[in-house]
Amino acid sequence: MSEHEGSGRAHLDSCPPYNLPASVDSNIPREWSVADPAAWSIARGILSELCHELRAAPISLRYHELTRPRSRDYIGLRITARARPPHGNDTIVIYRSESAQSARSGGRWSVAVNGLIPVSRVSITRPLPRTIAHLAHEALNAGLDT
Questions:
Q1: Residues 53-80: pLDDT tens digits?
Q2: What is the side-by-side strand order in the sheet with 107-113?
Q3: How far is the C-alpha of 42 from the C-alpha of 112, rounded, in Å?
Q4: Whether the Cβ atoms of residue 21 and residue 50 lie closer than 8 Å to each other
Q5: pTM for the complete prediction?
Q6: CA atoms within 13 A on the CB side of 20
Q7: Which runs of consecutive H residues, i.e. helices, occur in the chain?
């Protein structure tokens, strides 16, 4: 196990190549390619791991790079994953990460589950897709999404 797997934290280049079924509605390619930005693997990984964690079917994935009009120093992304469990309503998880390119300290990341934000952190490293899915599952089990 690598240091990133053990800590539950990820750098953009430490994600395995995730693939999604053709049935998933996605605004990024469903299949991994060596030329893909690493953030796309993180996006696909969040949906894949969420479905594994919830034993759900993948429905959709949206990847958006966030910008600030007057700032070239800003880096941000928002990933929206929708999964359908065998019973109950769809689960929507939104992962958001933002930081300044020049920042020596951490940026901010958050996970929202069905509209509520049970986790928000300031950190240098970002969580692995598996960790994001686990946090979402814990929020659902605790009823923090209702």
A1: 999 999 999 999 987 666 666 788 999 9
A2: 25-26, 57-68, 71-84, 91-100, 107-113, 116-123
A3: 16
A4: no
A5: 0.83
A6: 30
A7: 3-7, 38-54, 129-142
